[in-house]
Amino acid sequence: MQFINIQNERLSTIGIGSAALSGDRHAEQEAIRYGLSNGINVIDTAESYGDSEAIIGGALKGIPRDQYFLISKFLPQHATPDLMRRSLEGSLRRLGVDYLDLYLLHWRENANLITTVAELEKFKQAGLIRHWGVSNFDTQDMEDLLTVPDGDHVFANEDLYNLTSRGVEYDLLPWQQERQICFLSYSPFHAVGWNFIKPATTVKEIAHEHGVTPQQVMLAWLLRNHNVLPLPKAGQISHVQANIAAVDLVLLPADLSRLNTAYPAPTHKVPLDKI
Question: In this predicted structure, what is the pLDDT of residue 19?
Fold first, then answer.
């Protein structure tokens, strides 16, 4: 496994996503444990992901707390001091841990950024979280965030980014990179609407040439510039194995050119894609 350093945190170049975990709980927990024992140290979940926090909590039993970087999220309707505290305590209880490494506001919506950031800073001071961040924020949202007291303490923003949703490349991704704000990429294999991406013929051809799957090509593409940390969901050990193998897949310049033709980069600002 390869690693990146972000604000003195050593994070695996891919993480484990958990949206909509709802299949075989035993298999899902085994997949999480396999990932942790094979170099992945980032796990992403949310209070709105059904039973995912509880499933992850079961998988983490017996694993030293300093061996993983745990992320969860709270809903914008809970972005008041009392409700944020309740959400955080619920997530900690379901996950079976004393603190989160990263706590994210799941969407902006009508959340008051001033009071939300102030409460997140209190959580940090109390040792309940180590870092805080946001999710589904576009460039203007991030600029607004940096204008509030302590808003510049933001560790990460987690957005939809994959071959079919490249809008963040136009401005948001370079904006965050310039400010050393971690960019987490959710749903690398999903198009808007939770539909699995149907790989273009080009993706299938490149996968065949490298002896890998189309999904591994899509994941390697996200890793190409070393400025994104993808969070693919993995409900089975075989999926985790494939994701880990994709870290070592190097796409050739000709491959990237063909992918750009099949999935063009944005040439102007577009609305942020969300799932």
Answer: 87
Q: Could you give the CA distance from residue 229 to residue 69 in angstroms, rounded to a whole number?
A: 13
pTM for this model (two decimals): 0.96
**170 belongs to the catalytic site:** no
All residue ranges of the chain with pLDDT < 70 are 22
Catalytic residue among 49, 161, 186, 263: 49
In terms of Cβ atoms closer than 10 Å to its own Cβ (0-12, 13-18, 19+), residue 64 is exposed
Contact 200, 263 (CB under 8 A): yes
CA atoms of 236 and 25, how far apart (whole Å): 10
Residue 78 tokens read as 């809970």
Q: Would strands 9-12 and 3-6 be described as parallel, antiparallel, or unpaired?
A: antiparallel
Contact call for residues 77 and 106 (beta carbons, < 8 A): no
Give the HSE-up count for residue 42: Cα atoms under 13 Å, Cβ half-sphere: 28
pLDDT in tens, 182-231: 999 999 999 887 789 999 999 999 999 999 999 999 999 999 999 999 99
